[in-house]
Design goal:
single chain; globular; 7 helices; Rossmann fold; MnmA-like_C; RNA-binding; binds adenosine-5'-triphosphate; 364 residues; ATP binding; 24% helix; tRNA-binding; 17 strands; SH3 type barrels
Length: 364
């Protein structure tokens, strides 16, 4: 490792600070990079970003590391916010964390600075392993609550070979203990909340700003009864329960008719319409290598949202088309959201693709 050049992405949070601490313990002094996104299209800093930068500065000083600020404001709004608004307009459910990692933390960063380094360290909860053939795989973290491989599932083999995750094998409370014992400035900071970089801006605010409002009907799926009005299908996600504001619920959003701007809802705690078993994976992306190239019926595990559990199921591959059939009913299969594929042991994260709908006949 001696002559290897290492960069570390530092956020001002506890995880990346401990990552730097652990690198130093191994005798590695990384160059630190803080990515600035800002919170508005003009790149205004909010107070959290200011505090993040201060924390990053404190960590750099403490460990004698160089620290550089990389402004990826424009790239973020073009690529990530552009993607979010495009998917909302199409009635799909975007995932900004996945795209932020792909385009910003590993895409643009590599172009700007990363290419000067042999290794890039981050504070993600994820691991890598090399197989007998020399292939490097992204593998899950032992802390099921913190595992972030799903957010990294659009990376490519090149990035994964360069990446190191110094805290990836630890539990969150171990990371906190290390931070406290080392008296790191960010030790007591709360875990970052909300969607990648957008901070306090929500998808609804982006939808309101870029897509406006357009009144439409809310219809009960089972009866066809009109039960209310809404302000635009882009404010709703399949599986959504909160914030619908109709009496007599709970109501779930179960379907959207984009052409007619109609939201279909279903009532009850265990409503059948809110659950599904099978979906298509659109344009599946494989990180290292595609073990499911040949037509077949493969045992896998997967996630359709950021949860600690992996769901078991079968991946059906026919002529380059990929269908996932879950063993158990899952709630809120939202088109556009990423389905992340893992091997049967939920160990290797193989890749991901956006969820697409199957014709109803294939779902039974
Ligand atoms: N603004 C940023 N600039 C540079 N790197 C960042 C930035 N935000 C996040 N990262 C990198 O991505 C990793 C995962 O970020 P995430 O937003 O999931 O925060 P986290 O898991 O709470 O980590 P942390 O405690 O370090 O903020 C961070 O540990 C860091 O390496």
């Amino acid at each position: 490792m001696g002559s290897m050049k290492t960069a570390a992405l530092i956020s001002g949070g506890v995880d990346s600070a401990v990552a730097v601490h652990l690198l130093k313990e191994q005798g590695i002094t990384p160059d630190l990079f803080y990515i600035k996104i800002g919170n508005g299209p003009q790149g205004e800093w909010d107070c959290k970003a200011e505090e993040d930068w201060e924390m990053a500065t404190a960590v750099a000083r403490r460990y004698g590391c160089k620290l550089k600020l990389i402004d990826l404001q424009k790239e973020y709004w073009d690529e990530v916010v552009g993607y979010i608004v495009d998917r909302l307009r199409k009635g799909l459910t975007p995932n900004s964390d996945v795209m932020c990692n792909k385009y910003i933390k590993f895409g643009c960063f590599e172009e700007r600075e990363g290419h000067n380094y042999d290794r890039i360290a981050t504070g993600h909860y994820a691991q890598t392993e090399t197989d007998e053939a020399g292939r490097v795989w992204l593998t899950t973290a032992p802390d099921p609550i913190k595992d972030q491989t799903d957010f990294l599932a659009q990376l490519d083999g090149f990035s994964v070979r360069k990446l190191i995750f110094p805290i990836g094998g630890l539990m969150k409370d171990e990371v906190r203990k290390i931070a406290q014992a080392a008296h790191l400035a960010p030790a007591k900071r709360k875990d970052s909340q909300g969607i990648c970089f957008l901070g306090k801006i929500s998808f609804s605010e982006l939808a309101r700003k870029y897509l406006g409002e357009k009144e439409g009907l809310v219809v009960e799926q089972e009866t066809g009864n009109i039960i209310g009005k809404h302000k635009g299908y882009w404010f709703y996600t399949i599986g959504q329960r909160k914030g619908l504001g109709f009496g007599g619920g709970p109501w779930y959003v179960v379907r959207k008719d984009i052409k007619r701007n109609i939201i279909y809802v279903s009532r009850g705690f265990e409503t059948k319409a809110a659950y599904g078993k099978a979906f298509r994976i659109e344009m599946p992306h494989f990180i290292t290598y595609n073990p499911y190239e040949a037509d077949g019926d493969y045992r896998v595990t997967f996630k359709v949202r950021h949860t600690p559990e992996f769901t078991p199921g079968r991946l059906l591959v026919r002529g380059g088309k990929y269908e996932l059939h879950s063993d158990e009913l899952i709630q809120g299969i939202a088109p556009g959201q990423f389905a992340v594929l893992y091997d049967e042991q939920a160990h290797r994260c193989l890749g991901s693709g956006e969820i697409g709908l199957l014709p109803p006949a294939k779902i039974q």
